[in-house]
Amino acid sequence: MSFIKYIVLIICCFLQVLFLLLPGGVRAAALPVHDILVLHSFHSGLAWTASVNQGIEEILLAKDRQDVELHIEYLDSLRWPGDHNFQHFSRYLAEKYKDMEFDAVIGVDNISVDFLRRYHLQLFPMTPVVYCGVSCTGTEEIEEGRYFAGVCEDVDLAATLDAGLYLYPDTKEIIVINDRSADGLIYDRIIKKTLPTYAGKVFFQVWDDYSMEDLLEKVRAVQEGSLVV
Residue 58: how many CB atoms within 10 A of its CB? Predict the structure, then answer.
C-alpha cells in the first residue's frame, strides 16, 4: 500500500467516526449522500496535489460506495500566496456554498489548514475538519478536539542524521536539501534547531535556493565522504 493511500485510509476512519457521531435526528433528516469538501493548498497540476487527490477519490469514491459527494477546491497558494488570496478565497467559498452544509472538510497541507483555522467559524461552523500532509512541528498548534483532527508529517531530522552517520561513519560533510516553500520554512526551523547539536562533528551545508536543474547538477558533483539528506 502506498504512503498516500495509507494516509487516506486514516482520513476515512476519521470520517466514518464523525458520521456515526452525528445526532440521530440529523441522520434521519439528512439525505443519504455525505457532502465533503476537499481543500488543497496548491493547484491541480502539481504532482503531489494530484496524487493526494487521486488517493482520496480512490477510497471515498470506490465502486461499492454511493454515499459520498466530493467537492474539490484549490487554494493555488504557490502561484497566489498571501493574505489577499485567503480573503478572496473565503469570499468565493462563502458565495459558492452558501446554500450547502458540508458533513466534513478535508484540508490538505499546511496552507489549507491555516486557512481553515482562520475561517472555520465563518465558513463552516460546527463542521469537522480532517487534515493530512501537515507539518505540525514548529507551527502554531492546530486546534484539536471538537472540530479538528488529522495526521501530522513531522520530520525527525536528528534521528535521520544519526542513522546516516551510523551507516556511513566516515562522513565528513552533510548536505541538507530544502526549499523556500511554506513547508520548507517549517523545515528550516527544524534544521536550525537540530544542526548545532552536531557542531564540531561534521560540516554542514544547507541547499534551499536552487532550481531543480541546478540542484541535480550539484548533487552529481558531490564527493565521497558527503551525505545528502
Answer: 12
Whether the Cβ atoms of residue 4 and residue 59 lie closer than 8 Å to each other: no
Residue 138, judged by CB atoms within 10 A of its CB (0-12, 13-18, 19+), counts as middle
Q: What 3 state SS string does the chain have?
A: CCHHHHHHHHHHHHHHHHHHCCCHHHHHHCCCCEEEEEEECCCCCCHHHHHHHHHHHHHHCCCCCCCEEEEEEECCCCCCCCHHHHHHHHHHHHHHCCCCCCCEEEEECHHHHHHHHHHHHHHCCCCCEEEEEECCCCCCCCCCCCCEEEEECCCCHHHHHHHHHHHCCCCCEEEEECCCCHHHHHHHHHHHHHHHHHCCCCEEEEECCCCHHHHHHHHHCCCCCEEEC
Three-point CA angle 127, 43, 3, nearest 5°:
75
* pLDDT tens profile 167-219: 999 999 999 998 877 677 778 888 888 888 888 888 998 988 888 888 889 88
Tell me the C-alpha distance between 141 and 66, whole Å. Answer: 36
The whole-number pLDDT of residue 115 equals 94
- In angstroms, the CA 151 to CA 57 distance is 18
Check: CB of residue 191 under 8 Å from CB of residue 206.
yes
